[in-house]
């Protein structure tokens, strides 16, 4: 059993936490509140010992998006209160506020889910979803997809190399490159489709579509804290709604 | 209704879903390798819609975007666009809109329209109009020219989506033409694309189906 206090939580507890952050930044309009989640998430990541990969992932994916979204709002959001100008653009106060509030929310929600996928095993999460009612077929689809994607990527490279030796050009003008797309993808799709029939026979021989309850070798345990935490989230959300509506 | 939907998910349709999702990813990857200016990341979803029906495509789209979310959750809101594309492709197929090349191009335009109408509000509401891909630059140009945000996002989405979706649907059309009758006969809309058709009675040829 994993002894790390964050990692050992039930996958759904972690998932509800990401949802909780999403709902909370939608309820509270203040951008400082949404930005404040980010250091909290870094602390959680550090506790789970994934801080380094978490931060480098955010730098790689989120920062550029945030910069673009922010600049778009600052320069193009309609507003009257001009606080500066540059070339043909006008910097407005409304645009600045809109930019801050939009980026703060994207950062909070985006990083909450990025962290979620850092601290949860997909296998566990799918199992947890199955436990709360997703059909086992759904779990099979998700897990087999994750296996098939790298396999088909390799296959597409092989097909591309093979087509190159046959004389299909993959370099040159846009038209030449676009033409190479068809001979790469068509054989890949056709051969993959053909393989599903074999897979169907294999699965059927193992009673895949037989009715009845399925047992699983992979089991998840819920500890008391996994029962308490979701209610804590709900309590805080209700508190925030009351605070927003009445105060 | 629910029973009908459930009937769409026979074992072969279920096994087609992972393939379709992987095709979405591989199509995108190959487009990147060939440095094409379009994404081509919905080919699998459209393919599933065309031969296995709208509901299976809907599930495939949902799972595709959920898997993308593992790597980058920020673009998850676009799941709605993918699902609409899948359902759209399924319905177009049902009404015979992929039976020849010209109709297929029209279908491509219809799917473009679906993609633009569904994705533009997401771009404006969730990202304020720009998501950092090539269309953002076009959006910014339109905005600088004085268009309002909706007009700018719609126009740039049409420009970037049209080639993408028409090429995707055409590819699916040619792929479906090359799939064996034996396989097509086990798919929901497969009978529409089979080479040996029982044209006299207009009834679909049903093969003894092992996998239902």
Keywords:
heterodimer; A: 247 residues; mainly alpha; two-stranded antiparallel sheet; B: 212 residues; 69% helix; 0% strand
Describe this structure in words.
Chain A is mainly α and 247 residues long. Chain A has two domains: 11-120 and 221-246, no CATH class; 143-205, no CATH class. In chain A, 74% of the residues lie in helices and 4% in strands. Chain A has eight helices and two strands; from the N terminus they run αααββααααα. In chain A, strands 1-2 form a two-stranded antiparallel sheet. In chain A, β1 (82-86) and β2 form a beta hairpin. Chain A is flat and about 65 Å long. In chain B, α2 (11-33) packs antiparallel against α3 and α2 (11-33) packs across α4 (54-71). The longest helix of chain B is centred in the C-terminal third of the chain and has 30 residues, at 149-178. The interface between A and B is large, with 62 and 59 residues.
Short description, anyone?
The complex is a heterodimer of chains A (247) and B (212). By secondary structure, chain A is mainly alpha-helical.
Summed up, the domain count of chain A is 2
Overall 3D form of chain B? globular
Average of per-residue pLDDT values of chain B: 88
**Domain module tally of chain B:** 1
| Backbone CA Rg of chain A | 25 Å
- Which fold name corresponds to the CATH topology of chain B? Arp2/3 complex 21 kDa subunit ARPC3
Strand segment count of chain B: 0
β content of chain B, as a range? under 5%
| Distance between the first and last residues' Cα of chain B | 18 Å
- Topology pattern of chain A, helix = H, strand = E: HHHEEHHHHH
Structure class of chain B: mainly alpha
Q: Which bin fits the share of residues in helices of chain A? A: over 70%
